[in-house]
Specification:
This protein is of the alpha+beta class. 23% of the residues lie in helices and 17% in strands. The chain contains seven helices and eleven strands. The strands form four sheets. A four-stranded antiparallel sheet has the order 6-7-8-11, with helices on one face. Helix 2 packs parallel to helix 3. Residues 1-15 have low confidence and may be disordered.
Length: 328
């Protein structure tokens, strides 16, 4: 049994560091160099930052969209000499310190080029920590599990936004939003048409404008792997459906770049009150049977629409995956 009382059926092991191929750096359509070593990888945060600052200067007289996706703090970790050993929190702390420096450099570039007042800045993460990497993984802050799971430790991530004159300074938004909402929101801001095909994100511009009483969505669906509906939630409650997942609560994590084992765990149907129990520790479905019924009905509607491999539903509106045509 693991810490949450779920049944452990097997364990996976990864005793050695992963072997990674060379990392190509692409400028436009041209490969300009390859990264082979951690010492070379330690240059990346600075290279990305310098390129971002250059882009801002070059485009200061016209609208632009700048997307900066740092390689770190994803493993394997590397940090430049500017920050090596400076955080007193190990290599992960040094890496985060350098990312903080990067954000400051980019924001300073906006200010120096007089674009601070009319630029929306979004800082967020794609997923929670890869906990079995131990001191190279960061922390989920008490949320359950981590990356590769549908529990909040894997999906509930920080998001900071700044937009002078629009987003109230120091405000906190309690509504349920997702990274998939960025596209429709930016489209609404610049008055651009959305794709003809249906998308899952919603426009959260009213939330940015300080209307925290406006709920952008009634439910959020936790689809994972190929097409598994593993959970559904509303503003307060999250209903988890029976499924298997890789748990970090079974074995000790690894350290210094070596991953620890992950246990294969099965969870049954469970309801969590995220307002009172953000760590998803206590199943309260017996206390709120009407909530289970409501969320189950919404999930069944989603299965009819999008399908669900866990229950064998094909889905009426499931679209085919995209394919890249090759020419001979």
């Amino acid at each position: 049994m693991d810490y949450a009382g779920n049944r452990v059926t097997e364990a996976s092991s990864a005793p050695n560091k992963s072997r990674h191929p060379a990392l190509p750096l692409i400028d436009g359509n041209e490969k300009i160099r390859e990264i082979w070593t951690l010492d070379e990888q330690a240059e990346l945060t600075t290279l990305y930052t310098e390129r971002a600052v250059k882009f801002i200067k070059q485009n200061r007289k016209r609208p632009f969209f700048l997307y900066v996706a740092h390689s770190m703090p994803h493993v394997p970790l590397a940090v430049s000499d500017k920050f090596k050993g400076k955080s007193r929190q190990g290599l992960y702390g040094d890496v985060m310190m350098e990312i903080d420096w990067s954000v400051r450099e980019i924001m300073n570039a906006l200010k120096q080029n007089r674009m601070e007042d009319n630029t929306l800045i979004i800082f967020t993460s794609d997923n929670g920590p890869w906990i079995n990497f131990g001191n190279h993984a960061g922390s989920s802050g008490g949320l359950r599990e981590g990356k590769t799971t549908s529990f909040d430790g894997g999906l509930h991530v920080p998001c900071l936004m700044k937009w002078k004159g629009v987003i109230p300074e120091g405000s906190v938004c309690p509504q349920l939003v997702s990274a998939i909402d960025v596209l429709p929101t930016l489209a609404a801001i610049v008055d651009a048409p959305l794709p003809a095909n249906r998308i899952d994100g919603v426009n959260i511009l009213p939330l940015l404008q300080g209307r925290s009483d406006v709920s952008p969505r009634e439910y959020f669906l936790y689809y994972y792997r190929q097409n598994n509906l593993e959970a559904i939630r509303n503003e307060r409650f999250k209903l988890v459906f029976p499924h298997r997942y890789d748990s970090y609560g079974v074995h000790l994590p690894g350290a210094d770049g070596y991953p620890g084992q992950r246990g294969k765990v099965e969870t049954g149907l469970a309801l969590y009150d995220l307002r009172r129990d953000p760590g998803e520790r206590y199943d309260v479905q017996e206390l709120y049977p009407e909530v289970v019924k409501q969320l189950s009905a919404a999930a069944e509607a989603a299965r009819d629409d999008l399908g669900d491999d866990l229950t064998g539903k094909a889905g009426q509106n499931r679209r085919k995956q995209g394919n890249v045509a090759s020419s001979q």
